[in-house]
Amino acid sequence: MAKKRSEKQQEIEQLNQELDRVTSVVLSTFQGLTVQQDTELRRAIQAAGGRYRVLKNRLARRAAHGTPAEALLAQLHGVNSIAYTSGDPVALAKAVTRYAKDNPAFTFSAGVVEGRVVSLEQLKELAALPAREELYAKLLGLLQAPAQRLASLFAGPARALAVAVNQAVKEKKFSPAS
């Protein structure tokens, strides 16, 4: 059953609102995927904090108007789908790249990251980057290292004094108070 004009307009408005908030979009084709493979793809993208939609090209062009994805979706042709997120773009790129390795029928061609259209190679490079949490952990470790060294530096003389006093007590170098 064909959709009514009002339903299509609602769908366009909803997609426009979602695309207006995204940090990254990956354009792909899903032709040749089984239902089970499509379900696995949707779950992988959802686990990365993203969404996945199959698009009608004309509706996608209209919905993308005025959004960061406009340049990417302006020249659509063929069977297309998009994966998008307003969260971590690296996580989405990793999920899509990992899935494409396991399922050759799924291919992605380009994307938008932080408002810039990126190529397939740039998406693969993005997927090779460490995740945001991993970068935060490394940065925190770098920030904590000087403080840890400083704390051990200040604790050193006190520790040495405690060891010396303990050794002197064991060797009975102190005379008892009379």
What form results from the Cα inertia axes?
Answer: elongated
Given helix and strand content, the structural type is alpha+beta
Order of helices and strands, N to C? HEHEHHEHEEHH
Low-confidence stretches: none
What's the pLDDT, averaged over the residues?
A: 84
Number of strands: 5
Number of helices: 7
CATH architecture classification name of the largest domain: 2-Layer Sandwich
Distance between the termini: 106 Å
Helix content: 55-70%
By CATH, the topology of the largest domain is Alpha-Beta Plaits
Measured by DSSP, the beta-strand proportion falls in: 15-25%
| Domain count | 2
Per CATH, the class of the largest domain reads Alpha Beta
The biggest sheet amounts to: 5 strands, antiparallel
Please state the CA-atom Rg, rounded to the nearest Å: 28 Å
The order of strands across the largest sheet is 2-3-1-4-5
CATH homologous superfamily assignment of the largest domain? Ribosomal protein L10, N-terminal RNA-binding domain
Q: In oligomeric terms, what are we looking at? A: single chain
